[in-house]
Design goal:
The protein has about 120 residues and is mainly β. The chain contains no helices and 11 strands. Helices cover about 0% and strands about 60% of the residues.
């Protein structure tokens, strides 16, 4: 079993900052990509930022220059630093882990999400 847990969401005024954390645990052998996605009410889930095991990052155009994804020193952790937040960043943010478990089976696991609300 693989568990993914997010934390760090909350309510912030426009222009403010938040830092999201994600930790994956369980029978993980390796993680290839960890990423953050978000889903606003009435919209489809979209990719926000991803980072590979080699440190290659990818960002949605809407967050480039404002958000930074990074991997933690602890194994299988990832952070999302969100600066200059806008009301349109309001969404539930999900962490996703792609990799392999100890049985060498592929894993693609989502966390339960953390709410980010940006007030104008």
């Amino acid at each position: 079993q693989v568990q993914v847990v997010e934390s760090g969401g909350g309510l912030v005024q426009a222009g403010g900052s938040l830092r999201l954390s994600c930790a994956a645990s369980g029978s993980i052998s390796s993680t290839y990509v960890m990423g953050w996605y978000r889903q606003a009410p009435g919209k489809q889930r979209e990719s926000v930022a991803t980072i590979t095991s080699g440190g290659i990052t990818n960002y949605a155009d809407s967050v480039k220059g404002r958000f930074t994804i990074s991997r933690g020193d602890a194994r299988n952790t990832v952070f999302l630093q969100m600066n200059s937040l806008k009301p349109e960043d309001t969404a539930v943010y999900y962490c996703n882990v792609i990799g392999r478990n100890i049985d060498m089976r592929s894993i693609n696991t989502w966390g339960q999400g953390t709410q980010v609300t940006v007030s104008s």
